[in-house]
Amino acid sequence: MTALPPVLLPAACLPDTEYFCWLAHASAVTIEIHETFPKQTCRNRYRIATSNGPQILSVPVNKPLGNHTPTAAVRIDRKSNWNIIHWRALESAYNKSPYFLYYRDHFETLFMHPPALLTDFNLRLLETCISLIRIPCTFKLTENYIHEPEDMVDMRLNIMPKRPGPHQWSISGFEPYIQVFSEKQAFISNLSIIDLIFNLGPESADYLKKHRPGI
After folding, report:
1. Is the dihedral of CA 107, 139, 11, 186 positive or negative?
2. If pLDDT is split at 50, 70 and 90, which confidence band does 162 have?
3. For the residues of 133-165, what is the DSSP string, one character each?
């Protein structure tokens, strides 16, 4: 199967399954870190499955340059214990998943000692997930904001948007897998990649290979 074209992705915090499908299938990956930071997006939000259904967790941030702050300069707000709240939410949601005990240390360390910059936190989580899943993926970061991408699929606004909707590269449907609360609620599709990792473990790479953007 031929690789997908090069792709331009937004920076993201524990991004969803669709994001990782691009990482698994694209011939090259570039991550945008110089756009003006948009509020309430995947840059600092991710979605997990809990006993009460999907839950969105948001990393609080400070924008040193106000509304003109580029994503690369956004700092994590350290006034609250958000990281402890997030980790407890992850423990509660996934401590009964098959692979939580195997992988928890990789994530707990990052949550207990987050870096100052949001981008650094996101990239460390991303690199950890890629390493655990073992997909042959490398990526580069933008050096400047790319106004009009050439020879790349621009997914900055199409992946994990505020208002989801079908587009040319949509994945038609994700194959259900057993989630922690499958006995009490229907399969929740396209959650943060952490849901796939804790539930499928080493089978995560095969799952991503089955789901190719644009199909």
Report:
1. negative
2. low
3. HT-----EE-SS--SS-SSSEE-TTTSS-SS--
Would 20 be classed as within a structural domain?
Answer: yes
pTM for the model stands at 0.94
According to DSSP, residue 80 is labeled S
Number of domains into which the chain is organized: 1
Would 215 be classed as within a structural domain?
no
- Establish if 35 belongs to a structural domain: yes
pLDDT over 70 at 215, yes or no: no
Mean pLDDT of 170-194: 93
Please name the residue that has the structure tokens 């009490």: 184
10 Å Cβ neighbour count for 36? 12
Q: Which structural domain range is residue 47 located in?
A: 7-210
Query: Is position 118 within any domain?
Result: yes
Q: How confident is the model at residue 61 (pLDDT cuts 50, 70, 90)?
A: very high
List phi, psi (to 5°) of 210.
Answer: -75, -20
CA dist., res. 133 & res. 120, Å (int): 20
